């Protein structure tokens, strides 16, 4: 063990919060250690957003090439070069990672340590952190250790070489038939990407519908969109065990009722668990929630003053933008600010094609408020009735808006359709600014866009009732 190194702050985990907070702190003259056991950029850059959104593009190009004749373009038969698509993805990941590495590497005052870090108690006002051969101390510790795939207790899974998001993205050959356990956003993005690249795909979801938290009609529309592309969707299944298929070459998922689903590869995408178990939290008196998450206040401070928990491990979001936003809040507060994570409106997108995007409340939440006497209206508009979507030949989906009739504020919005990931931000911005629907009505829109339809959709809103029947 080398001698004790003193810092002003220690960041454990270089995900989507820690590196950027570290950079801000060194710019303020502080001495910061950034400890990362794997790759800078964490899940997003190396195993999450960056590779999936890059591969999604190859899948979309293949899809549009197959549809080319609809647009008056002749292409001949469409062949996907899986290796080339994966190499393009890998190049993008390496470019993003090395860009981050180069930027962080030249920051004066930032020491990057490649090791697993853990807390090891206190020395007075200082926290002690161990990382490989290093013993570090600092009065401030920032935890940004993210999540890893949750492996469900399915009999037989431990004897099978199943895939998770990371192993799927490292494949060199296209699976002939990909069976996916799980019906959340990682599953569905991968299902569509691999289907479009040429795999047969079957989804097995134990819940009653895909995208469990979305409105029922939205989940149905997502299911319809995927089945229209030839993806087999099985919901409400009970998985009894998994094992090798008869020919020993693939996998078999045995379902209750005697049915089984075979595939060449099995992807398990059943959620994620926080990397808090090896952090030595007990040495400083920190506890985690029943599901292993660190509890923070709205300033993202843990129960131990001087320790912050940022990103997915604080369960205040499970996205890159929430993690990055977390560090922005802490950076400002460390400079005397008063920012709070409670003030932000939850917003996200699932990057199927077209994407599903959501902000604020769901329809079921709004209906509950109606039972409490709130006057809420809802507007629903099919994308097939939006001219820009028709012109693009991409009419799948719908737009739903929820409006509080007393205040005029948007309560939430869900959009499944072309460019929803961008359009949702118009509503997100109005919500964050405290504006009302009149702002959207009165602002001059660009034609022809999907966004220009928002005033028309708002005009057609109807009172929401307590029940959907
Ligand atoms: C397949 C997939 C696709 C996704 N797509 C999107 C998307 O399109 N949009 C979006 O917003 N989000 C997406 N996400 C989620 C997104 O990747 C995460 O929310 C994001 O990475 C934020 O995580 P984080 O900052 O909390 O930590 P992470 O990015 O998970 O990074 C944590 C880092 O800490 C390191 N670490 C852990 N323990 C230790 C330790 N003890 N010592 C040292 N280092 C440690 C890990 O190696 C890792 O590098 C996706 C995730 C997956 C899996």
Automatic annotation (TrEMBL):
The lineage of its organism: Bacteria, Pseudomonadati, Pseudomonadota, Betaproteobacteria, Burkholderiales. NAD(+) binds at residues 182-189, 205, 271. The keyword Signal does not apply. Residues 8-322 form the FAD/NAD(P)-binding domain. One of its GO terms (molecular function) is NAD(P)H dehydrogenase (quinone) activity. Binds 1 FAD per subunit. The active site is at residue 447. Its cofactor is FAD. Keywords: FAD, Flavoprotein, NAD, Nucleotide-binding, Oxidoreductase. The keyword Hydrolase does not apply. PANTHER family: MERCURIC REDUCTASE. It comes from the Bacteria. Belongs to the class-I pyridine nucleotide-disulfide oxidoreductase family. This is Mercuric reductase. Its EC number is 1.16.1.1. FAD binds at residues 53, 117, 312. The gene is merA_4. Disulfide bonds join 44-49. It comes from Comamonas aquatica. Residues 349-454 form the Pyridine nucleotide-disulphide oxidoreductase dimerisation domain.
């Amino acid at each position: 063990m080398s001698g004790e190194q003193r810092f002003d702050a220690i960041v454990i985990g270089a995900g989507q919060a820690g590196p950027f907070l570290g950079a801000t702190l060194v710019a303020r003259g502080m001495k910061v250690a950034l400890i990362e056991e794997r790759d800078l950029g964490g899940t997003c850059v190396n195993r999450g957003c960056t590779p999936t959104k890059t591969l999604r593009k190859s899948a979309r190009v293949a899809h549009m090439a197959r549809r080319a004749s609809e647009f008056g373009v002749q292409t001949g038969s469409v062949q996907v070069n899986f290796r080339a698509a994966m190499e393009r993805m890998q190049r993008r990941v390496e470019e993003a990672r090395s860009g981050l590495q180069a930027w962080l590497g030249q920051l004066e005052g930032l020491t990057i340590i490649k090791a697993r870090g853990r807390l090891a108690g206190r020395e007075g006002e200082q926290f002690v952190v161990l990382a490989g051969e290093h013993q570090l101390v600092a009065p401030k510790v920032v935890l940004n250790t993210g999540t890893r795939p949750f492996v469900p207790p399915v009999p037989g899974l431990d004897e099978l070489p199943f895939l998770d998001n990371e192993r799927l993205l490292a494949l060199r050959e296209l699976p002939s038939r990909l069976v996916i356990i799980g019906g959340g956003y990682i599953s569905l993005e991968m299902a569509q990407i691999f289907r479009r690249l040429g795999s047969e795909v079957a989804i097995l979801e134990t819940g009653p519908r895909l995208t469990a938290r979305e409105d029922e009609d939205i989940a149905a529309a997502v299911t319809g969109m995927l089945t229209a592309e030839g993806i087999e969707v099985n919901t409400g299944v009970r998985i009894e065990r998994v094992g090798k298929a008869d020919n020993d070459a693939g996998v078999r998922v045995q379902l209750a009722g005697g049915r089984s689903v075979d595939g060449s590869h099995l992807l398990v995408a059943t959620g994620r668990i926080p990397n808090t178990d090896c952090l030595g939290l007990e040495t400083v008196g920190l506890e985690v929630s029943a599901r292993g998450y660190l509890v923070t206040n709205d300033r993202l401070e843990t129960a131990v003053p001087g320790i912050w928990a940022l990103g997915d491990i604080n369960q205040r979001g499970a996205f890159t933008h929430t993690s990055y936003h977390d560090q922005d809040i802490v950076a400002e507060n460390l400079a005397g600010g008063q920012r709070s994570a409670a003030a932000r409106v939850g917003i996200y997108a699932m990057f199927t094609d077209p994407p599903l995007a959501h902000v604020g409340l769901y329809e079921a939440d709004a209906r509950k408020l109606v039972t409490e006497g709130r006057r809420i209206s809802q507007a629903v508009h099919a994308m097939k009735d939006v001219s820009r979507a028709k012109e693009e030949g991409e009419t799948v989906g719908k737009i739903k808006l929820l409006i509080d009739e007393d205040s005029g504020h948007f309560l939430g919005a869900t959009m499944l359709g072309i460019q929803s990931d961008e359009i949702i931000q118009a509503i997100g911005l109005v919500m964050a600014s405290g504006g009302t629907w009149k702002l959207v009505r009165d602002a001059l829109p660009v034609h022809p866009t999907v966004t220009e339809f928002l005033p028309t959709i708002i005009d057609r809103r109807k009172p929401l009732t307590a029940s959907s029947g």
